[in-house]
Amino acid sequence: MDEIKTISLNLNVLLTLAVDVATNKVEVQNCDAKVVKVASDDNNQIQYTEHQINETENRYGILTLGAKSLVGMLMPTATEVTIEIDGVKFISSKSIRSHRSTRGRIDGLTQLFREFPDKLAVGAILSVSYDSQTSILALKSN
Fold first, then answer.
1. pTM more than 0.85
2. Most buried of the four, 49, 95, 131, 136, by CB within 10 Å?
3. Residue partners of 21: CB distance under 8 A and separation at least 6
4. Backbone region of residue 23 per phi and psi (left: phi > 0; alpha: psi in -120 to 50; beta: other values)
5. What pLDDT was estimated at residue 19?
6. Measured between alpha carbons, how far is 109 from 122 in angstroms, rounded to an integer?
7. Residues near 28 by Cβ (< 8 Å), separated by ≥ 6?
8. What is the Cα–Cα distance from 6 to 56, expressed in whole angstroms?
């Protein structure tokens, strides 16, 4: 018998609808969905958020996702983090860690910013996820 795994998705959905009031017919004109949270039956939770790179992050090689963001809340402080960018594991010559006191901040990313200047330019928007089981911070350029 095949193993069945249950996965729960929490989505943020924006629908644009056209409603014919005479016939009550509804037509979907546009649908935009963003994944907020993924949880599986093995209790592995992955949080997602969007983040725009700012000047300070680019200059100092940090990410400031914020303590109140979905990803920042899940990420423990003073923890080594593995970075994946567009599905490829990034190997750094220096340790990449979450900040020791500021939740949602990741330090040690200067090499990453230098190796991916187009993907991590000021103003670039990234989809960011964090897997608490593996300590992988995944960055996906949009």
1. no
2. 49
3. none
4. alpha
5. 94
6. 14
7. 15, 16, 17
8. 40
